[in-house]
């Protein structure tokens, strides 16, 4: 049993330029010359979300609004990514299948209802409930929890989370689960998808469909008086503007209409914003999923031809701000990353030879193959889609490309092998965000069946994956690395083609100070006025 008393000392308090001894006259002049919306932080984002239900705050891209309203039991240090206190002040492992969390007292939800052990357990169990697994509102996060677990009330401010077997990724799952008001879930469930209610630094105000979202500062937030918090809100309101076009997000920053633009293509960000373009780290890999159940795309030679006909260096340098080629779906620093695994070489001549070999054996390559992308998946994705289409067309394939809205794309992508339609021949461009920094998450989502994103079950690899995930971390890492070599390089198993290790670029206006987090999440309270 390991005791982890993770009390976190703040690295510093928020900066305020007004505290630097500016004279009264100068301060008044500056105040009068400030923009009319000086008390409002404006953030331009690329996409509207299908729902504002708490489970959709499961990763950085979908949590832009939600993580500012809902809080998890555990947070992450913005500089290191290490887990720190959130709504839980400390936690410890009781045995192989039980973690105990001691909850913060004196916290209330935005609807005035109390945060306590009963509310925390109810929200966690609702989020990861087996009954909700196939519900589109819950599926993105619930499918991550391949090993079921349950939150159990111990006393008023203590809960145990108990899994059916050893669950190495449990703390990561708790970090991604924002806690919702139990009162809302039980008494007003019809509001769950469009009126988020949490305990966070910001309270939800409105959702103007197609235009944006508005939050206001929570004056009763527990973090205002806590040493566990480094930054507190420096604005009264936050306005999220939906700006799907990259040019409109950049223009908003340049014109002072927005203080921040999320996720911009590297070249456009640098050329148009200069020093106002900020690069941040990212645990994200772009990739293509193959419809391997189709007899043509499932042929090992066709899989390899698709993989080695991609100029990853060219794509990374020209379109993605220098993003290096990816050899696997995880990045350096993740437990289970294979350091000596090389990316697929760029060899279109060999790709053509493989296709000819397949055709000689009767494989039909004259069919039309759909290349599908999810709009605003990552900056530059439309350009990457075009390059992939051109490259595979040069090989002789008839490639029909389409960028889809999130809801339509997810309907056929998320949900595992059950989403495959007989006869479909499709390639899916997306990104894999391993915000848990553990290849175990990749293993569970891609090899456990039914899984969240795999398109067919692979019993041999799945058995090895389940065995690996039952081991303590040191042994688990070695077993996963052996497994993932086959997963990434054996053409009989290749279902996902890694492309590039992505970087993320943002536009930051002159009115604010902000630094990117190691984990890529966006907290509005970390923006400080200059």
Task: Please give a structural write-up.
- There is one protein chain.
- The protein is α+β, with helices and mostly antiparallel strands.
- It folds into 3 domains: 32-46 and 201-281 and 503-530, D-Maltodextrin-Binding Protein, domain 2 (3-Layer(aba) Sandwich); 48-200, Periplasmic binding protein-like II (D-Maltodextrin-Binding Protein, domain 2, 3-Layer(aba) Sandwich); 284-502, Dipeptide-binding Protein, Domain 3 (Dipeptide-binding Protein, domain 3, Roll), CATH 3.10.105.
- Helix content is 28%, strand content 21%.
- It has a 7-stranded mixed beta sheet.
- The longest helix is centred in the last third of the chain and has 17 residues, at 473-489.
- The two termini are 47 Å apart.
Topology:
Layout: E1 3-4, H1 24-33, E2 40-45, H2 66-69, E3 74-76, E4 83-85, E5 88-95, E6 98-103, H3 117-127, H4 139-142, E7 149-155, E8 158-163, H5 170-176, H6 182-187, E9 202-208, E10 212-217, E11 237-242, H7 246-254, E12 260-261, H8 266-273, E13 277-280, E14 284-290, H9 300-308, H10 312-319, H11 348-360, E15 368-374, H12 381-394, E16 398-404, H13 406-413, E17 426-433, H14 439-447, H15 459-468, H16 473-489, E18 496-501, E19 504-508, E20 512-513, E21 528-529
Parallel strand pairs: 2-11, 2-12, 15-16, 15-17
Antiparallel strand pairs: 1-5, 3-4, 5-6, 6-8, 7-8, 9-10, 10-11, 12-19, 13-19, 14-17, 14-18, 20-21
Helix pairs in contact: 7-8, 9-11, 15-16
Low-confidence stretches: 1-37
In the CATH hierarchy, the architecture of the largest domain is Roll
**What number of domains?**
3
Give a quick account of the main beta sheet: strands, pairing sense, barrel closure: 7 strands, mixed
**What is the residue-averaged pLDDT?**
89
CATH superfamily of the largest domain: Dipeptide-binding Protein, Domain 3
Number of strands: 21
| SS class | alpha+beta
Helix coverage percent = 25-40%
The shape, in one word, is globular
CATH domain topology of the largest domain:
Dipeptide-binding Protein, domain 3
Strand order across the biggest sheet? Answer: 9-10-11-2-12-19-13
CATH class of the largest domain: Alpha Beta
The proportion of strand residues reads 15-25%
- Report the C-alpha radius of gyration, rounded: 24 Å
Distance between the termini: 47 Å
**Number of helices, where a helix is a run of at least 4 consecutive DSSP H or I residues:** 16
